[in-house]
Write a structure and sequence with these properties.
Blueprint: E1 2-9, H1 13-22, E2 33-35, E3 38-42, H2 49-53, E4 58-62, H3 72-76, E5 83-85, E6 88-91, H4 96-108, E7 115-119, E8 132-136, E9 141-146, E10 149-154, H5 165-172, E11 180-183, H6 192-197, E12 201-206, H7 209-221, E13 228-232, E14 245-250, H8 260-266, E15 267-280, H9 286-296, E16 301-314, E17 317-327
């Protein structure tokens, strides 16, 4: 199987491996190979190859698969469903006996895990947090790495979804150096931090004070503190950014429509709005577009550039995104 690998001279191999491991971009599914004096370090599937190519030589080659790795399904006899968030593994099981069996298998496997939690409540309240049953370990704080960025967070205090990594990457790839980027519901910075790394001047607002604390830490951790302004509060009450934003992210899908008036105030003469919504699959995009037009027209020409189904949210309900250009 062809896998992207960092190639370095043998004498630089261990130092390079450590640098890559610190970014959590070394594949745990393939062996590191030595060929003709060069070391080939296989990269994880979600590694930010563009960023790595700026610093290392990245080549595609047939990598040797690890044969000794024990996975949870090897122990259980079935493939369990779980998500990884840093060294925390998240399961979603109603059956306590099954949840315990999956936890035991995760701990016994070769997957790097310190804590296993089970969802104990839906996402609740203005701060969008949920309760957890801790099944193994005791630390709900972790550092999650995603496309070359590191995010420190505590799942008991803030909201973060690893499922949205691909969608976040799609948006961030549109960001250009020098643009003014405003995230109205920023959380710990999964949009803001990578946008700042691409050279944007970024503002992130959140009602959750803990999320803003982590956003500030993550800006420093990723060396973009000079390009990130973190603001604790209701975005509707934030002052000083009217007509400022070139790009606005509105990832609050259950109630983003309540903040569209503020988004229009933030928009500059030519702005892109990434509007997230949850709607019935019979008409997933129509209500969002209608709400945006009602808020922005006639001051702005409204052009829907992309309509995207992000994921299934519930039976017959879709989490969607509309990329909309507002031109004054």
């Amino acid at each position: 199987m062809s896998v992207p690998c960092v190639r370095v001279p043998r004498e630089e191999g261990e130092a390079t491996r450590k640098r890559l491991a610190e970014r959590d971009v070394v594949s745990d599914l393939h062996e590191i190979d030595v060929v003709d004096g060069d070391i080939y370090i296989p990269l994880a599937a979600d590694a930010d190859l563009a960023a790595l190519r700026e610093e290392f030589e990245v080549v595609d080659r047939e990598a040797t698969e690890r044969e000794t790795q024990t996975l949870p399904e090897d122990i259980l006899g079935f493939e369990p469903s779980y998500e990884r968030l840093g060294d925390i593994v998240i399961v979603d099981e109603d059956d306590a006996e099954r949840a315990t069996a999956i936890t035991d298998a995760l701990i016994a496997s070769d997957i790097p895990v310190e804590t296993v939690v089970n969802r104990a409540s839906p996402i609740e309240g203005e701060l969008r947090v949920r309760e957890w049953d801790v099944l193994a370990g005791d630390d709900t704080e972790t550092v999650h790495r995603e496309y070359g960025c590191a995010f420190e967070l505590d799942i008991e205090r803030v909201y973060f979804s690893p499922r949205l990594a691909t969608e976040r990457r799609r948006v961030i790839e549109q960001v250009e150096s020098g643009e003014q980027f405003f995230d109205m519901f920023a959380g710990v910075g999964p949009f803001v931090i990578p946008a700042a790394k691409r050279g944007a001047e970024c503002v992130g607002v959140d009602l959750n004070e803990a999320a803003i604390e982590y956003l500030e830490r993550n800006a420093e951790r990723n060396k973009v503190g000079s390009r990130v302004t973190a603001i604790h509060g209701d975005v509707r009450e934030v002052e000083g950014y009217d007509d400022w934003a070139d790009r606005i992210v509105m990832n609050l899908p259950h109630s983003a429509d309540e903040f569209l008036e503020t988004a229009v105030e933030l928009a500059g003469d030519d702005s892109v709005l990434h509007y997230y919504d949850i709607q019935h699959d019979s008409d997933p995009f129509g209500p969002g577009e209608a709400a945006i037009r009602a808020a922005a027209e006639p001051e702005y020409d409204v052009s829907v550039e992309t309509q995207r189904e992000v994921r299934s949210y519930a039976p017959h309900e879709l989490n969607v995104c509309l990329d909309v250009r507002l031109t004054r």
